[in-house]
Amino acid sequence: MSRENLDELRARVGRESQALQAAVDDVDQAAATVLGVNRTDLRCLEVLVRGESTPGALAAELGLTSGSVTAMLDRLAKLGYLTREPEPGDRRKVLVRITPATMARAWEIYGPIAEEGAAEMAGSSAAELRTILDFLTRSRELQQRHRERISALPRAVRGS
User: Where are the domains of the chain?
Assistant: First the structure.
């Protein structure tokens, strides 16, 4: 393959990656709207779909203060999306869990995407899946590194 074709192919991959990020962002905004929550609340629910958590772990994963997490959990509990209960082994700790009704709602929203994606990949070879997995892993790691870099930049001063 000529250098020019390889450069164009890399550029197309970059454009498609950006388009994918925008499409995922649009789906998440639509889901947040359907659920009546903001995007941070949606991220919290996404974390809880994977399993129970503690407020401290949620704060760390979402990059929030403990006060922000408390306010968010209060909002989501009021909507009936999660429960908070003392941890049986250490009653000083609180476990946060998504409710079964919320899990069903999340599956209603995201399940068809997961099922269709799985069906589309069903014919892929192990080598193709390893290539896709490698690309996705490296892309996620790239985004995480740059999130840290961007977060360290000076913040804009409003009103100046």
Answer: 3-122
Strands (E), 3-157: 82-87, 90-98
Topology adopted by domain 3-122: Arc Repressor Mutant, subunit A (1.10.10)
Determine the pLDDT at residue 113: 96
Distance (Å, rounded) from C-alpha 84 to C-alpha 70? 11
Amino acid at 6: L
The distance of Cα 72 from the centroid of its chain, to the nearest Å, equals 16
* Separation CA 85–CA 93 (nearest Å): 8
- Prediction pTM value: 0.84
- What is the b/e burial string over 7-45, where b = at least 16 CB atoms within 10 angstroms of the residue's CB? eeeeeeeeeeeeeeeeeeeeebeebbeebebeebbbbbb
